[in-house]
Amino acid sequence: MKDVSENAIDHFRQVGRITKLVGLTLESHGPNASIGDLVSIHSKTTQEDVFAEVVGFRDNRVLLMPFDSIKGIACGDDVTQVNEGFRISVGDQMLGRVIDGLGNA
User: 19 in a domain, yes or no?
Assistant: First the structure.
């Protein structure tokens, strides 16, 4: 049985912050991530989440490439690492369909 401190650690999540936006590239201070990791950016303006991929690093900052529109994203918005990648259910119903990188048909 886990004690309270172990349960608290299970729910601990490192959060970064958007520090710069240039074109479609976003720059954040944290979270600690690796190239190819998936992150979620929470817009305080629109209250929506946008997924992005870690594509590089510059001066202890994380460079992110969003998968969707960045309308509403601003400096100071939260960046959280997603622990699991995208999952797409497959089966006969998917035969012949065209899907994008986010699993949208």
Answer: yes
- Which pLDDT value is given to residue 90? 78
Q: Counting beta carbons within 10 angstroms of the beta carbon of residue 42, is it exposed (0 to 12), middle (13 to 18) or buried (19 or more)?
A: middle
What global pTM score does this model have?
Answer: 0.74
Tokens of 60: 């202890």
- Using DSSP's 3-state secondary structure scheme, residue 65 falls into strand
CA pair distance 82, 72, nearest whole angstrom: 20
Residue 102 lies in a domain: no
Number of domains the chain contains:
1
**Distance of alpha carbon 91 from alpha carbon 84, whole angstroms:** 21
